Every structure is written in C-alpha cells, then in structure tokens.
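Give me structure tokens for this 445-residue protein.
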Amino acid sequence: MINRTFFNTAVAVTLALGITAPAAAQVAPAPAQADQNWALHAQATFVTQGVAGFSSPYEGPNSLAPSQVKETFDATVYAGVRPWGGAELWINPEIDQGFGLSNTLGAAGFPSAEAYKVGKSNPYLRLQRLFFRQTIDLGGETQSVAGAANQLAGSQTANRLVLTGGKVGVGDIFDTNRYAHDPRADFLNWSVVDAGNFDYAADAWGYSYGVAGEWDQGPWTFRIGAFNLSKVPNGETLERDFSQYQLVGEVEHRHSIAGHPGAVRVTMFRNRGNFSRFDDALALAAITGGAVDPSLTRRRMSRTGGHINVEQEVTDTLGLFARAGISDGAIEPYDFTDIDRTVAVGGTLNGKSWGRPDDRIGLATVVNGISKAHERYLGAGGIGVLVGDGQLPHPGSELIAEAYYDWHAAHAIDLTLDYQFIGNPGYNRDRGPANVLAVRLHGAF
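Here you go.
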C-alpha cells in the first residue's frame, strides 16, 4: 500500500516546485539568454502505478504479480556553472524513494521508467550526474541556445564539436527522441522511451561514468562514446577503469518534409566484458544437474547490437516516432533489459484543436522479442535482468500498448493519466495480459 504521509509530502513538494516558479523559468526550454554563467533548476515527479488481476498459474523469482499498487518519487536539483567560454559544469543530486511493480520485475518492457532497479521505502540521496561539457564552435550560422536543465543559455554555431565527460546517462546523449524519451513528461514504458534492445551501460539507477564526443556539421551529427559497464550484470556498482566497457556510435541526419522537421538516427553499440552465452549456462547445468547459473560460465566476450530511431513532425500539433533494433541474442543482456529485438511506433498530439494547446495525448505500440537460445534459458529456469518465471513452456513476443493524457494544470505542473496493456509479460503466453494504470504528477522550475 502507498504510505499516505509520504504521498502527501511528495505531492506537496511536486506542487510547490511548480506553483512557486514563474512561467519563464521552467525546465522546458525558455527564451535564450546571452552568456548565462550559472543556472539552477529542479524537478519532482510522483508516480502511482497499479496492475489489475490477470491469469497467473505459476510465478518465478522475476515474475510480475497481479493485483498490486506501487509508487515512486524523485526530486532532482540541476546546478550548473560556466567556468569559461563554451564550457559547462553540472551536478544533479537526487532524492529517490519507492518501488516499481514487483520491485521493477516481470516485464522486459517494464511499465515505468521512473522506477529504478533498486527500490527503497525511505527517501535516500544519490549523486546521479556530475559532468563537464565543452562546446567548440567550428563556424556556420550562429544559433541561440535556450536555458534548460543541464543546459546554460547562450549561443553556438551550427557546426561544432561537443565533448562530454563524467557521470551521465547514456540516453542523455544517444537515442534521444522528441516524442518518446522522457518518462517524467511523455511515455512511461522502458521500451518506448528507449530502444528496448539498446543494452546501454548503466548502474541500477541508469547512469554511468564515461566520455562522449559529438560533431555537428550541417544537417549531420556524428556521436561516439565510451562508458563503464556495471561490475556484474544489472549491478549497483560501476567499473571505473573501463575494464568492462561499452563503445557506442550514432549518426543523425536532420531533415524537413513539407516544412516540418524530422530526424533519423542510427545507433550501434559493443559491450565488452564478462558475459555468458545462454547455451553455455544450459550445458553446464545439464552436466552438474544444478540450477542454470550464468555467473559460472561468464568469460571475456563482446555483445553487439544496433537500432534505428525516427521522429517526424507531421503538423504543428502531431508528431510521430518509430524505433526498431536487434542485438546478439546468444549472449545475456548486461545492464538494461531482456530484449533481443524490438519494434516501437507511436505519436503525440497536442490539444490545440480542443482549446488546450499545452495538453498532450500519446499513443504507442511495441513488440519485443528474444532469441531461441534466450527462450531455452528462461524455459530452464534461468533468470534475466528483469524477467524469469521459472519456466517458459509457451513463449511468445511481448506485446505492449501505451496511451496517456498529459493535462498541463499550471505553469509548471502536469498531471498525467497513463494506461498500458502488456500481452505475454516476460514472453510468457501462460501469464497475463496485464492492464496497468498510472497517475503521474510532475512539477519543475
């Protein structure tokens, strides 16, 4: 059950962040200010999410349980300074609390990206980001840069080099999408806000130590980065010496169709560390007669994958997006979730036509799948990053649909009602379908 005292406190903090903030000082981009030398922003997000009863003839250690309600809360400060021209230093301390459904387990496309893999009843403080960014102008048209969280207002040239280093989220730089990338503002499902097969380097909270470079040249951007993996799959502690690491590269092309902007991004990654092949873990279990344990067969190897990410404005009120990707399904996923292939499509519509231009409706559908080796592993009782019902006699693709309505209640207050349908949660035709309902309250300045 939801702790009512904490609920009241969380709502009060979230509302206070918005009500006390002037309209021109939101986390959303504001009109650009020349030579902004420092900035302070904050946000708070409260999510209550519940799943109704569904068919569940058996459960394993990583199963989604029917008939439950959970809540999460986070509050973040974004403090930044400009030590010299083109440079920015940002720090993001955050208070977190709460649990995802079944302690963030049971569906590869988990229904709340606001839920971390580490749940706690009492609020706790973590330093989620601490990074340095240097922008080097290379010529071309001068552009205004609006001030926002983790972005100082100022100017830059169209052609430029951007270098970032420190503790960040890989998704801060790679696989961004205008319509589906922020669980505090748009969709909630993990495999909608990011490509489900993108096994990006991260600790259990979704952040990593690393470096990245971006080269913007005309309508093109080329990105490359190196990030530390966690010490063990899905772990709380990151490597710091790149002994286990991820290399990721991305090419982006921006375009205009009938005067409406769009972008196409192609992302590739290579994870290098101590992983196990599914069939190796199964073979050892067959010899010893013990449980399937991939930790016993991990050795130095690489896991690769890639995806395409498209966004397109169709009208001044409607935008569409799509992602599709595939990764090496013979080797265990490491830091994100149990998805070897994915296809997601959707769009958002703002409320201009019904007199609410700051409101938004979102709709997305996702199909997530795994390899035959991955199916055999789960069928033998293997446990994944998020899924594992102890058996899998009737495997099937995970089918997800998500719809939300975001009501812009005040200057910086948004209240969102979110519904998700999850067919075959954990790739299991014997369980589900699950109907998941959430209410999200978000405030920022």
